[in-house]
Structures are given as C-alpha cells and as structure tokens.
Amino acid sequence: MVILDGTVVNVALPAVQRDLGFSPSALAWVVNIYLVPFGGLLLLAGRLGDLVGRKRVFVAGLALFTAASLLCGLAQDPATLLASRFVQGVGGAVTSAGTLGMVVTLFPEARERAKAIGVYSFVQSAGGSLGLLAGGVLTQALSWHWIFVINVPIGAVAVLAAGRVLAPERGSGLGRGADAAGALLVTSALMLGVYTIVGTAAHGWASAHTLGLGAAALALLLGFVVRQARAAHPLLPLRVFRSRVVAGAMGIQALMVAGMFSFQFLCVLYVQKVLGYDEIRTGLGLSPVSVAIGALSLGLAPSLIARFGPRTVLLPGLALIAAGLAVLGGVPADGSYAADVLPALLPLGIGFGLAMPSLATLAMSGATPEDSGIASGMFNTMQQIGSAFGLAALSTLATSHTEALTGHGATTASALTSGYQLAFRVGAGLVTVALVLAATLLRNAAAPRAASREAESVSVPEVKAPRQPAR
Predict the structure, then answer these.
(1) Do 126 and 26 contact (CB within 8 A), yes or no?
(2) Gyration radius from the chain CA atoms
(3) Which residues touch 253 (CB under 8 Å, ≥6 apart)?
(4) DSSP of 332-352, one letter per residue?
(5) Which helix H or strand E contains 111, and what residues bound it?
(6) What is the pLDDT of residues 247-301, one digit of tens each?
(7) Neighbours of 167 (CB within 10 A)
(8) What's the pLDDT at 212?
(9) How far is Cα 352 from Cα 383, in angstroms, rounded to an integer?
(10) Could you tell me where the DSSP H helices lie in 204-243?
(11) N or C, which end of the chain is more exposed by having fewer CB within 10 Å?
C-alpha cells in the first residue's frame, strides 16, 4: 500500500491538475512532496526500529499513513493536498524502514531468504507499477480523491492484523540515541536539493538562486556526514559503507530508480497528453511492466541469484532497463502504443525484475543483525532519493524543453513529445552509468559456487533465528 501510493497518483495527475489548478512546473510536487520525507526519514525510522522494536515503529507508521490518506482524499486545494502528502510520506517512511530488516531476521536460511527477498523486491518494484493501474481505474470510475480514500479501510485492517500477527521486539533501547539532529540535517538537505532542482525551470541551472540553494543543500549534507562521524550514536553508522559492495549497490540503485521512476511519471503523461488515452487505458497499457516484474521477482530471479550470484543477474537487468528507456527516447508525436510504447515496456519490466532483488541481496550482504534495520532503511532511502531527485531533474528538464519549443512556435504535441524524449534519453544515460559502476565496483561480488552449495551462494549472510525478542 505504501509503495503503491508513491505512483498511484501519477495516472491521476492530469485530473488533479484540472481540479485543483496546479501549474505544470508545480505538478511534480504532488509526487515529490511524498518522496522527500519518505527518503529523508527512512534512516531515522530504521534506527528507531532497532532501538524500540520494529513492530512498534511499523504499526505507528501505518496508522499515520492511513490518517494522512484520509486527509489527502478530502483535500480541496493544492496546499491541503501537498501538506497531507507530506504527512503521508512521513508515515510511509516509518512503515517501510524496517521491513527488509524483518525479512532478513525472519528468514535465517539462505535459500528461503532469497525467496523472501524476491517477494519483497516484487512488492517494492511492481507495487509502483500496479499503482498506475489502480490509479487509472479509481480516477476514471470514481474520482482522483478515491486513490487516497481507498487506503483508509485497507490501512485500518493492516494495523489490526500487524498488531496481532507480528511478534513483538524490545529493541536495544532508546538510551543508545536516535540522532534527531542527524535526521533534521539529512531531511533538510534532501528537501532543499529537490526544491533547487525543481526551481531550475524558472531560474535556470546557472542562476544565483539555483547555485545558492544548491550550495546550501550540499552544506547541510556535509554537516550530516560530519555529524555521523562524530556522534556517539549516529543515525547512519558509517561502518555500513565500509563494504564497497554494499556502498556500490546502494549508489547503483539510486541511479537505476532515477531513470525507472521518472519513466512511470513521464510515460503516463505521454500516453495521456500525446496519444490521448484515458486513465483506465493508461493503467492497463502500462501493466505489462508489472507482469514482467512479478514474473521475474517472484519466480526466476531468486533462482538465478542463488545459482549465479547477484552481480551476474544484475548486469543484464540494468542493460535491459537502459535499452527500454532508449526506445522511449524515440517515441514520435504521432506514434502508437503498440509500435512505440509496448516494445519498451517488456525490457523495462524484465530488467527491473532482475535488478531489484539482486541489489537488495547485495545491499544487505554486509549488514550485521544489529544494523539490519538501518541497512534496510538505507536501502529504501536510496530508492526514494533516486526517485525524488530523478523525477525532479527529468520532469523539470522535460518541462523546460517543452516550454522553449512552444515559445518558438512548435505544436503542443510536438513540444511535449520532444521534452519527454529528452528526459527518457537522460534516464537511459543514468542507468547506463549504473551499469558501468556495477561492472566495475561489484567485480568480486558473490561469485557463483558449486551446484552442491547452491543454497549458500546468495550473498546475504545467514542470520541465526532469535530465540527471544531482541534486546
């Protein structure tokens, strides 16, 4: 539900824009105002899960997310919707931060853990694509308000179920510190960074406004790093990044989702504004991505990772994503879904279905049981950071290019298409960089072992199942 809500709004964006009067440049904030607190608070939420118990944090976040969803559904003006989406992002961060850590702890045997991570990766990646279909159906059949209201009964049931089903954890205690100052620094840096990028549409990349805000965002980020190096109980223990494989996997993930998440946003706009599809046809048209991700994440990918190692599976996955985005970089203004969009969707879905579980396996491989919560939070953080910054940069790039062409007399369809093409090509370039980094930084990661030891070849370390609640 939380992951789905990151994209369910995408199909409804034109309807939201018409109803509430968002400008084209401000429209991306409906998505980014959710992603920024989501990414910025995942670290703090992951740390809190380690300190007070993941069940408590999970249930509290789910309750907050559900309440914020109701506020979003009742919104009648841009300010109310954006404020409610921000609170939704906070609840989403608190809910999501410790989930991968719980997977690692609950499935100590390597082969079973590989399957569990495959399911987790499917929910993480396909949930976003499924949100496109759900958003289309709800928006056209009812109204855009229902893409948020539908979360209320689902969230209420989930809160009750989690309270009854999940085993309690005591955590290591708040006496070790949660580093609220670190959380404030990193969240402020991310928000200011995204705001700076979105503002380039009006101020330009080389303006004093952009450079000044960008420098301030970098200063806040540097302050966060210094704080983590000196704090007695840091929000993000820097030891998590001692492993080149773990650090590389998280950076590669940020680049990958920057291109992939922007595809979901921009392709929806292309299909609706250029090809003239309604919301339901748009959601159905993009559903092959979800099908491909599901088939790979839940079926083939875990077996391939166990047999060949995550790096070997990751590389073709990234190559397929880059190829799919490159195909979209050539969509014409008078194109068709079957000839111009569908050929890109299958490699995108297959590639993401291979790459996401591979990166999850690599990212968790160096985490100790004590740090599994913060490692899970960091993995999710990099996904949200990549999504937020990628969407801000590529949507702003597309908007600026479109406005420039319109000002020179280009037709609306031609200008829009050219803007989308440019953004897709840049997204393909980002994923290509991720592919190069994966081929170099992860060279020695998780080499495949003999078939007789296949179950142990997954790079995530085996963790003993706890006999009592964590202390």
Answers:
(1) no
(2) 21
(3) 359, 363, 379, 382, 383, 386
(4) -TT--IIIIIHHHHHHHHHHH
(5) helix 110-141
(6) 888 889 999 999 888 887 888 889 988 988 888 888 888 888 877 877 776 668 7
(7) 12
(8) 94
(9) 13
(10) 208-230
(11) C
Torsion of CA 222, 226, 255, 251, to 10 degrees: 160
| Distance between first and last Cα of the chain | 30
Q: Is the pLDDT of residue 446 over 60?
A: no
Give the per-residue pLDDT at 196.
Answer: 84
Asked whether residue 362 carries a pLDDT value surpassing 50, the answer given is: yes
Alpha-carbon distance 384 to 4, whole Å? 13
How far from 208 is each of 12, 197, 199, 317, 373, CA to CA, in Å?
35, 13, 12, 40, 40
CA–CA gap between residue 197 and residue 399 (Å, rounded): 12
- Residue for token pair 């840096």: 189
* Phi, psi (rounded to 5 degrees) for 29: -65, -25
User: What is the C-alpha to C-alpha distance for residues 301 and 121, in angstroms, rounded to an integer?
Assistant: 10
Read off the pLDDT of residues 381-430 as tens digits, 9 standing for 90 and up.
788 788 878 887 888 888 888 888 888 888 888 999 999 999 999 999 99
- 3: tokens are 């992951």
For position 453, what pLDDT does the model report?
A: 37
Reply yes or no on whether the pLDDT at 176 is more than 60.
Answer: no
With a CB cutoff of 8 Å and minimum separation 6, the contacts of 279 are 11, 12, 15, 135, 136, 137, 139, 140, 272
Residue 315 neighbours by CB distance under 10 Å: 17
* Cα–Cα distance, 405 to 403 (Å, whole number): 5
Structure-model confidence comparison of residues 338 and 441, the more confident one: 338
Following CA atoms 315, 320, 321, 327 in sequence, which dihedral angle do they give, to the nearest 10 degrees? 150
SS3 assignment for 138-175:
HHHHCCCCHHHHCHHHHHHHHHHHHHHHCCCCCCCCHH
Any idea what the Cα angle at residue 41 is, between residues 38 and 42, rounded to 5°?
Answer: 80
Which residues fall within 8 angstroms of residue 133, CB to CB, at 6 or more apart?
283, 284, 286, 287, 290
Side-chain-side CA neighbours of 100 within 13 Å: the count stands at 36
Q: Average model confidence (pLDDT) for the chain?
A: 79
Determine which of 74-78, 174-178, 342-346, 409-413 has the lowest per-residue pLDDT on average: 174-178
Q: Write the pLDDT tens digit of every residue in 10-37.
A: 778 888 888 888 877 677 778 778 877 7
Give phi and psi for 351, each to the nearest 5.
Answer: -65, -45
Please list, in sequence order, all residues whose beta carbon lies within 8 angstroms of the beta carbon of residue 117, skipping any fewer than 6 positions away.
100, 103, 302, 357, 360, 361, 364, 460
Q: What pLDDT does 222 receive?
A: 94
Q: What is the mean pLDDT of residues 42-71?
A: 83
Nearest to 65 by CA among 144, 150, 191, 190: 150
